[in-house]
């Protein structure tokens, strides 16, 4: 047999296996039960408005807050980690190791319950405020490492050229290094953003009111009230509706930037 | 800035170590205002380190460096102000890739010298024309040839109206056919009276443009003097050995 014919036959076999597997799944699945439990149109119609105006809105809002806060904290920690002054490096390293090492759930729980009791402090924003602060602290630890790698990814000659022109260290960092580091960190930061979207679902541990429920908490509640799993499917769709377009947009953005260099 | 009698650069007994390795072993040299001093020597002999000590991109271990009479190793010295008066041109150009050519030339003028946007742009345009890349003003560095990038880098330094310029092998990263354009710009600059310290492997340039030639080997100045003399009748065996390899 000729080589190309052989390859074509091999490919054909792979397609056949795939089609067979899909057919088997369709034939074996109990469609009636599935639909009754996961795709109830009535339940969906009832839950959808609030799920978008309250839950999806909260998920996006919480993610944006945690991302912005984490970004600022991450830049600060990255600069500390690159500082020539050892104590700053120690603090940053210790912080990063601690909050990357702990489960986010535990940190949220600690901020929401342990901290207020231990120090008699009230974090503004109540349970959600405490939970968000915890998310910021965790996100900052992860982003710090990404940003540090980005800053170190900028060739040393860039800072040297800027300093040779008489630009002070801070100005060099802001105008020359960070903008270039920014381009380097777009892909890993997108990843952090998507992780954060999903991590907002951990906020329930801090406790939530009707108005502060995000997608997952809302869906869990709805499953109980409607005695049906349809809200879970809706939640899954909503997450994908947020994350998939986001990664697409970032990919386009990256391609644009690549062109200007 | 007039420097009535004070040398532009004065280096005395300069030592520099990286860890336990001594890279500069007591360098003495003087560059007078308006002079062009070329530095040659084998790779690893410490030429770049010497040049980078002059604007303190490297921290000397000991010794003295005076720039226009100012002791730049004095902890009290305003290093950014001193650096703004010393242009530096690198082997790898080091243009800012995220900024247009114009912005490459204006950012330090505005941030360091406090010039306003229009004035800075005017100065930038003038210097880009001077080095022959005026039409690239809106391009990004990645869209320029190596020779154009290096000329933009020179224009960027010139836009700060420096009193002197340091060149670290400015043509070593260029394709051979692009070297001439950059050397032409440097020659014009020398003829306009710019004080220059040039690390180079271009012996023709050193012979023709240099007022002084320094041959370095193993962290020390082996021989220096009029370029024609040093290149024509080298006094030291090490100089002869080096020149026989590069000429
Ligand atoms: N940052 C550094 N750390 C350690 N060693 C260095 C560093 N920079 C230069 N050196 C060493 O110093 C010596 C002189 O280097 P350099 O000044 O770049 O020489 P040249 O420019 O004459 O080729 C070399 O042996 C080099 O390996
Ligand atoms: Mg060198």
Task: Tell me what you see in this structure.
The complex is a heterodimer of chains A (261) and B (247). Helices cover 83% and strands 0% of the residues of chain A. By secondary structure, chain A is mostly helical. Chain A has one domain: MetI-like (MetI-like fold), CATH 1.10.3720.10. The longest helix of chain A is centred in the N-terminal third of the chain and has 41 residues, at 41-81. With 247 residues, chain B is of the alpha/beta class. Chain B has one domain (9-244): 3-Layer(aba) Sandwich (Rossmann fold), CATH 3.40.50. Chain B has 9 helices and 10 strands. In chain B, helix 3 runs parallel beside helix 5. The chains are: A mainly alpha (261), B alpha/beta (247). Chains A and B meet through helix 7 and helix 8 of A and helix 2, strand 6, helix 3 and helix 5 of B. Magnesium ion binds next to helix 1 of chain B.
CATH-assigned homologous superfamily of chain B: P-loop containing nucleotide triphosphate hydrolases
How far apart lie the N and C ends of chain B? 38 Å
Count of DSSP strands of chain A: 0
Which kinds of small molecule does this entry bind, naming each only once?
adenosine-5'-diphosphate, magnesium ion
Order of helices and strands of chain B: EEEHEEHEHHHEHEHEEHH
What is the approximate shape of chain B? globular
H and E order of chain A: HHHHHHHHHH
Rg of chain B, nearest Å:
18 Å
Q: How many angstroms separate the termini of chain A?
A: 49 Å
Number of strands of chain B: 10
- CATH architecture verdict of chain A: Orthogonal Bundle
């Amino acid at each position: 047999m000729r080589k190309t014919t052989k390859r074509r036959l091999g490919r054909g076999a792979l397609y056949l296996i795939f089609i067979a597997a899909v057919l088997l799944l369709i034939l074996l699945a109990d469609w009636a039960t599935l639909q009754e439990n996961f795709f109830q149109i009535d339940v969906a119609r009832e839950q959808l408005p609030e799920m978008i105006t309250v839950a999806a809105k909260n998920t996006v809002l919480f993610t944006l807050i945690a991302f912005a806060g984490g970004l600022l904290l991450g830049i600060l920690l990255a600069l500390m980690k690159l500082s020539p002054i050892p104590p700053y490096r120690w603090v940053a390293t210790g912080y990063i190791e601690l909050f990357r090492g702990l489960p986010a759930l535990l940190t949220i729980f600690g901020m929401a319950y342990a901290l207020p009791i231990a120090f008699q402090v009230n974090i503004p924003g109540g349970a959600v405020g405490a939970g968000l602060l915890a998310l910021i602290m965790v996100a900052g630890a992860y982003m710090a490492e990404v940003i540090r790698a980005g800053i170190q990814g900028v060739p040393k000659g860039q800072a040297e050229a800027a300093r040779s022109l008489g630009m002070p260290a801070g100005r060099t960092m802001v105008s020359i290094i960070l903008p270039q580091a920014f381009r380097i960190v777009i892909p890993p930061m997108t990843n952090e953003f998507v992780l954060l979207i999903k991590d907002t679902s951990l906020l329930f541990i801090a406790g939530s009111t009707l108005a502060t429920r995000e997608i997952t908490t809302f869906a869990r509640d709805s499953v109980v009230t409607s005695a049906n799993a349809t809200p879970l499917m809706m939640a899954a769709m909503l997450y994908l509706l947020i994350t998939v377009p986001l990664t697409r947009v970032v990919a386009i953005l990256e391609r644009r930037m690549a062109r200007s260099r | 800035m007039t420097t009535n009698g004070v040398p532009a650069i004065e280096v005395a007994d300069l030592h520099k170590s990286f860890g336990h390795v001594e890279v500069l072993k007591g360098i003495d040299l003087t560059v007078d205002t308006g002079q062009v001093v070329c530095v040659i020597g084998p790779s690893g002999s410490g030429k770049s380190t010497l040049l980078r000590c002059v604007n303190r991109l490297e921290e000397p271990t000991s010794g003295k460096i005076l720039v226009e009479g100012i002791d730049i190793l004095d902890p009290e010295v305003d290093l950014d102000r001193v650096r703004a008066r010393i242009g530096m041109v690198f082997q790898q150009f080091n243009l800012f890739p995220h900024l247009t050519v114009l912005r490459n030339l204006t950012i330090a003028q505005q941030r360091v010298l406090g010039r306003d946007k229009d004035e800075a742009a005017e100065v930038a345009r003038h210097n880009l024309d001077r080095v022959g890349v005026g039409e690239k003003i809106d391009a990004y560095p990645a869209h320029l040839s190596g020779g154009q990038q290096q000329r933009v880098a020179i224009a960027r330094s010139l836009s700060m109206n420096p009193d002197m310029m340091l060149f670290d092998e400015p043509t070593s990263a260029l394709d051979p056919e692009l070297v001439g354009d950059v050397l032409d710009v440097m020659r014009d600059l020398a003829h306009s009276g710019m004080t220059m310290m040039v690390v180079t492997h271009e012996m023709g340039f050193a012979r023709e443009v240099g007022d002084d030639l320094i041959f370095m080997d193993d962290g020390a100045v082996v021989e220096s003097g009029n370029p024609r003399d040093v290149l024509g009748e080298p006094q030291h065996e090490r100089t002869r050995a080096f020149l026989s390899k590069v000429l």
